[in-house]
Design brief:
Elements lengths: L10 H8 L18 E9 L5 E9 L5 E7 L10 H9 L3 E5 L19 H14 L12 E11 L1 H8 L11 E5 L17 E6 L7 H8 L6 E6 L6 H4 L3 H19 L2 H10 L5 E5 L1
Parallel strand pairs: 3-4, 3-5, 5-6, 6-7, 7-8
Antiparallel strand pairs: 1-2, 2-4, 8-9
Length: 284
């Protein structure tokens, strides 16, 4: 079944744009930044016509840290997801979240078809961030684990992430997290070394139907898990402070800790992480 292409000129422009206030930068639901986490913006690009200002959320703790490149949804921006990104950074991950030129809120020209260029954008961002490990004077000098890299994304960003494991496989990736995403427009031709992937999707999602995730999840031959949120919609589980957000934050964090840091106790917590708000299908 073809994923509802988000009907991004119609459904998202009407429904999702109307919901832009929920969980956004001005939301009172946004929790305070975790201690031991700092934020900065890198002025990166994927070429002369593809500026990619990248929000970098990083731990201040010592040692080498894995990297997660995060893709925002259509008409969203990276700072909309700060509660989740800060949770990951506080758990020891460097999170790099670019603002894409044609799918972010405030873009001069919104175009969902530009998704075909976003996996390459992420690859360029990842290359630049990994290079900070050898850049003297940078706060991340000597503090990045280039062998522990994941991609994650929400909605159109989740589809972008699927593309990084299929048509535009980035073999640096060791794991993936797909939030309310699907296989459009990249298909399910997974390639390269196996990498565990966690899918998360709400049954009440009217923007990208739950089947969007199952279409990408079912054919995946690698270790995988699917967190179903029976009452979850398209935005609140990933942006807002509540029981579903808590389940998503805990589950994704422990999945990343297990897949990138080989944290077996974190793997053992996954089922409990879902709590009473989610159902975990575990094939990891």
């Amino acid at each position: 079944m073809r994923l509802i292409r988000l009907t991004l000129a119609g459904l998202l422009a009407a429904g999702m744009l109307a919901a832009c206030g929920r969980g956004g930068p001005g939301s009172t639901a946004t929790p305070a930044a975790a201690p031991a986490v700092t934020e900065r913006t890198l002025q990166l690009s994927g070429g002369p016509d593809r500026p990619l200002p990248t929000l970098l959320v990083q731990p201040t703790t010592a040692g080498r840290h894995p990297v997660v490149v995060f893709s925002h949804g259509y008409t969203r921006r990276p700072d909309d997801y700060l509660p989740l990104l800060r949770t990951w950074a506080a758990a020891g991950f460097v999170v790099a979240a670019p603002t894409f030129p044609h799918s972010a809120r405030g873009s001069a020209k919104l175009d969902d078809d530009d998704i075909v260029n976003q996996p390459a954008d992420n690859a360029a961002v990842l290359t630049a961030v990994l290079a900070l490990d050898t850049t003297q004077g940078d706060p991340l000098f000597g503090r990045i684990d280039a062998n522990a890299v994941a991609a994650a994304g929400h909605s159109l960003g989740g589809m972008t992430t699927v593309g990084m494991f299929t048509k535009h496989r980035d073999e640096r990736l060791k794991a993936g997290v797909i939030l309310a995403g699907g296989q459009w427009p990249f298909g399910v031709g997974y390639t390269g070394p196996p990498a565990p992937i966690l899918f998360v999707h709400g049954r009440a999602d009217e923007v990208v139907k739950f089947e969007g995730s199952t279409e990408a999840y079912d054919p995946l031959p690698w270790p995988k898990a699917l967190l179903e949120l029976p009452k979850g919609d398209h935005l609140d589980p990933y942006l807002a402070d509540g029981p579903e957000f808590a389940a998503v934050a805990k589950t994704t964090t422990d999945f990343l800790r297990w897949s990138l840091l080989h944290d077996d106790p974190a793997r053992a917590r996954l089922a409990a992480d879902a709590g009473d708000t989610g159902k975990l299908q575990d094939r990891l």
